[in-house]
Amino acid sequence: MEKYFGKIIHGDCIEEIKKIPDNSVDLIFADPPYYLQLPKGKRLRRADGSEIIPVDNEWDSFESYEHYDSFTHAWISECQRILKPTGTFWIIGMYHNIFRVGTIMQNLGLWFLNDVIWVKTDALPNLNGRRFTNNHETLIWSVKNKDCKKYTFNYEFMKKLNGGKQMKDTDWVFGLCKGNERLKDENGIKAHPTQKPLKLIQQMILASSNKGDIVFDPFMGSGTTAIVAEALGRKWFGVEKDGKYVAIARNRVTDFLKSKV
């Protein structure tokens, strides 16, 4: 496994995961395509007139629910295979996809521990007033199968972080990724449309892994999982299909490592 550590692999996640040995990873975090089904090129504006650019990228495009489900089944089953019996598996999503993802996970025999709610303190309001503001995302936390009992859960540390009270699955209250943390391109546009906040990934890794554990991300994106895992003393690696994001993530990791020297 040492050959993988500290690397962001440029390739298709399903094909690349097939190369990883069985039962070899302690923690998997996946932020897959949500299949948002937004019209290509649609633009909205906030009350202040600033433009909202939705997620309409190629990597979030699928022909149908059947196509999305087939893709989801393929990558989740491979992740299940490489997960250690003592490891845990996190997948994040929204109402667009998380129920489909959850069904596929259960059909594959993954055993749910929690559905954790990330409450977004500064979520975008619903602009047309025709539905509630979507103020959260869901993380499904699971183990390889129902027989897995000796998985890592740092209960006491999570309790300490929560002011001495048992942490609830709704205590995950974090703002969106913005300010200096938000990566932008040369035009000042978001470098990745779904970049997750460092604090969210930090809490997930602290809760369910220990120093020296192996963390894997099959959709590395802008490299947030790599940065947090590196900072927390975990061994990490991941896969990213889009060459633009691979470059962003690798540069981000390089800059972070230089800052530690």
List the helices and strands and how they pair.
Blueprint (H helix, E strand, L loop, with lengths): L6 E4 L2 H5 L7 E6 L13 E2 L5 E2 L12 H18 E11 L4 H10 L3 E10 L15 E8 L11 H7 L10 E3 L23 H11 L5 E4 L6 H8 L3 E6 L2 H18 L1
Parallel strand pairs: 1-10, 2-5, 2-9, 6-8, 9-10
Antiparallel strand pairs: 3-4, 5-7, 6-7
Helix pairs in contact: 2-3, 5-6
List keywords for this structure.
8-stranded mixed β-sheet; 261 residues; two-stranded antiparallel sheet; single chain; alpha/beta; Rossmann fold
- The pLDDT mean sits at 91
CATH class equals Alpha Beta
Structural category is alpha/beta
Order of helices and strands: EHEEEHEHEEHEHEHEH
**Gross morphology:** globular
Description:
This protein has 261 residues and is of the alpha/beta class. Helices cover 30% and strands 21% of the residues. It contains 7 helices and 10 strands. The chain has helices at 13-17, 65-82, 98-107, 155-161, 198-208, 224-231, 243-260; strands at 7-10, 25-30, 44-45, 51-52, 83-93, 111-120, 136-143, 172-174, 214-217, 235-240. The strands form 2 sheets. Strands 1-10-9-2-5-7-6-8 form an 8-stranded mixed sheet, with helices on both faces. Helix 2 (65-82) packs across helix 3 (98-107) and helix 5 (198-208) packs across helix 6. The mean pLDDT is 91.
Produce a short descriptive summary.
The chain has seven helices and ten strands.
